[in-house]
Amino acid sequence: MLNIMLFSWIKTKKAPIVELDALPITHLNKRSQPMGNIHNLSVIRQCFSYISEENFCLPISDYRVRKLTTFKSIKLILASQLAKWDSYEQISQALRTSTTLQESLELSSISGSQISRRLKTIPTEILEGLFLELIGKVKQKALPSGIKDKQIRIIDSTCLKLPATLASWAYVTRDHTQIKIHVRVLVLTKSEEKEVIPEKAIPTTGNVSDYETMNLLVEDDGTIYVMDRGYVKYKQFDTWLEQKVQFVTRINENHRVWQVEQELPVDPDSNITRDAIVQLGSAFRKTENSLRLVEFLDEKGRKYRLATSCLDLSAEEIADIYRQRWLIELFFKWMKQHLRLVKLYSYDPQGIWNQIFIALIAYAIAMLIHVSSGTRMSLWEVLQSLRLLWEKPNLLLETELHRRSKSQSNKGRQRGTKIYKEPPIMNTSVGIIKPRGK
């Protein structure tokens, strides 16, 4: 009865959209010390130390729960995300066979069915708050002070397909049963490469359009928001123009120009084909305020049309800003390839929501270790090291992360792709190699 009361309260309480810059960063206690202070801890315990148990005092949710409390279940599923375990049974087996995991959780064993039930009952608001807090710490360490360049934020969504027989609540069409994750990322500019920091995530069913969530993701914070064609809505454009929100959005050929106010000069030697101040739409539906239309061709001659409120930038700069939209696609690909997002543990709505946020928490912890250690490895290499050394002392992880010397620039002998004109000679009679046809 108490649990029912708890979740009825959770359903009625809306989680506020928190600005990350205003998040209070809690002081690190003995259980959450920064990386490198305690070398003899195991790597998995060091990852757990970024989560403070003080934030998980849930006497109602954990009422009469003897073994798998909310805090322990979050840590156990977080370990499964970092290690990419395939199923509840594999999580249960890993706990039974790992003394390190048992000591970290103060739990000797648990069944897969109990893990499944707990995943569906963890309050999602708690996981969202934990994700925002960790990302706030990442931003503190990753963003240099006194940034002069305009920051760029990208918003987009990705779909996760679900089996129709197990997730009828996510039905979209006869061929599609899916959910969406609407995400906002901040572009982190480095000397040679660019990374993104996920700032907000809104899981929805697949029938929620992109433009239905863009007012929750876009804020008047002085940054430039980059969006694709799914976020075109003339009424919202007018609101942003009145609020001085800067945005760059791709539009297609169906979005016509209602009125041309000014044609701006274009360099004939550039890839820009048009730069104008216009009103978009038709007599039935159009923008009330004027915005800028930039058209350009990419390297393959494909035409792109951009609607933007940025008047102080050149057309070439606006085109370059839109090209960075691909970074969020790389982020989605990274999450699906390296964390447990393609094959879900649960097909219950709250279970899926919780798994999404625990995956984002795992990403935030890996990124926090990445930026805190100062390693030259990529984020994927850091996650690989976490998986290989998760039961080893943390000192071995620190050694591995700094294996590459800062002065080392030689990557060794680089081999190109070898093209055989004739079948290669092999010292075996096993198998058949058939020559290529001319």
Automatic annotation (TrEMBL):
Organism: Paenibacillus faecis
MF annotations from Gene Ontology: DNA binding; transposase activity
Record bears the keyword Transmembrane: yes
Domain Transposase IS4-like: 149-364
Species classification: Bacteria, Bacillati, Bacillota, Bacilli, Bacillales
Transmembrane segments: 352-371
UniProt keyword terms in alphabetical order: DNA recombination, DNA-binding, Membrane, Transmembrane, Transmembrane helix, Transposition
Protein name (record): IS4 family transposase
Top-rank taxon: Bacteria
